[in-house]
User: Which sequence fits this backbone?
């Protein structure tokens, strides 16, 4: 299993970024996928998840209405569109493969190396 994130960077408050996660080594279309972030000095925070077909999405309250998760199963790629970014969104963002049946716990077994998002003026 390999998950490789990209698309991070530095952006001003109110700006946008689109993260991508290229997946390989497993049947991508068979797994729920999730985004997790970790800010400096803090523990991991679940951000968003998507079901296998992309028709159901889930968001943490902190990002609801600003972030959009999507996937392209033909390209084995997961996305996170982040709009109206705030300084508190600054973190290392990971994509992860959810454990089947984890439901609202959004537990995961594999994750990538992460991509840094910094929101600052």
Assistant:
């Amino acid at each position: 299993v390999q998950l490789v994130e990209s698309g991070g960077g530095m952006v001003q408050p109110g700006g946008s970024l689109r993260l991508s996660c290229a997946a390989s080594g497993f049947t991508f279309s068979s797994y729920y996928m999730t985004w997790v972030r970790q800010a400096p000095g803090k523990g991991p925070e679940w951000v968003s998840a998507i079901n296998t077909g992309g028709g159901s999405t889930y968001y943490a309250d902190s990002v609801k209405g600003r972030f959009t998760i999507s996937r392209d199963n033909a390209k084995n790629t997961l996305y996170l569109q982040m709009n109206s970014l705030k300084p508190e969104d600054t973190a290392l963002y990971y994509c992860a493969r959810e454990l089947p049946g984890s439901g609202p716990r959004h537990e995961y077994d594999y994750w990538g190396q992460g991509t840094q998002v910094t929101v600052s003026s």
About this structure: The first strand starts at residue 2 and ends at 6. The mean pLDDT is 97.
